[in-house]
Design goal:
3 helices; Ribosomal Protein L25, Chain P; 6-stranded mixed barrel; 47% strand; mainly beta; single chain
């Protein structure tokens, strides 16, 4: 799983006026919360955080959120609120991760190779581009690679044939076809 380092500053002010002041200063208000902690109000640098989030490109990531003068927390980005007119960050929610708990994730599938059946005149049908898995956060793969070189005409690959690491469970039905050659 991708890890991202973000630094933030604690904030004591709350409300619409305080948030606007922060945004004018180039900072985004944020909150850190979780099951075992009280909510912590923080602010992050808007420019550097935007650049970091753009690198993620909607992939699964864990953020190492270090609060200045305090602790470092392992968090998920739960929600990013964006101003629809100005396309700027308005607010971010971080969720505290329990590394021993299993969470559900959507992981993209990456198909590699050229199927034998396509070379013989068949047509490749990709039915799924991602699958749902259940795993501890640090075991989640960036993507699941599927080699389709051995697929002949009429062959298919289903979820039960996926090669995943120990501790990772595929939640999609086992018989669900991912890719086939017709």
């Amino acid at each position: 799983m991708i890890q991202l380092d973000v630094t933030c500053q604690p904030r004591t002010t709350r409300g619409k006026g305080a948030a606007r002041t922060l945004r004018r200063a180039g900072r985004t208000p944020a909150v850190l919360y979780g099951a075992k902690t009280d909510p912590i109000s923080v602010s992050i640098d808007t420019h550097s955080f935007t650049q970091s989030v753009l690198q993620l490109q909607r992939r699964n990531a864990v953020v190492n959120l270090s609060v200045e003068g305090g602790d470092t927390y392992l968090v998920f980005i739960k929600e990013i609120q964006v101003d629809p007119i100005h396309d700027t960050l308005k607010h971010t929610d971080f969720y505290l991760v329990d590394t021993e708990k299993e969470y559900e994730f959507t992981v993209p599938l990456q198909y590699t190779g050229v199927a034998k059946g396509v070379d013989l005149g068949g047509e490749l049908h990709i039915s799924q581009t991602n699958v749902k898995i259940k795993s501890k956060p640090m075991l989640v793969p960036d993507n699941i690679e599927i080699n389709i070189d051995d697929l002949g005409q009429g062959d298919a690959i289903s979820c039960e044939q996926l090669a995943v690491a120990d501790g990772v469970t595929v939640l999609n039905p086992a018989a669900m076809v991912l890719v086939s050659v017709q």
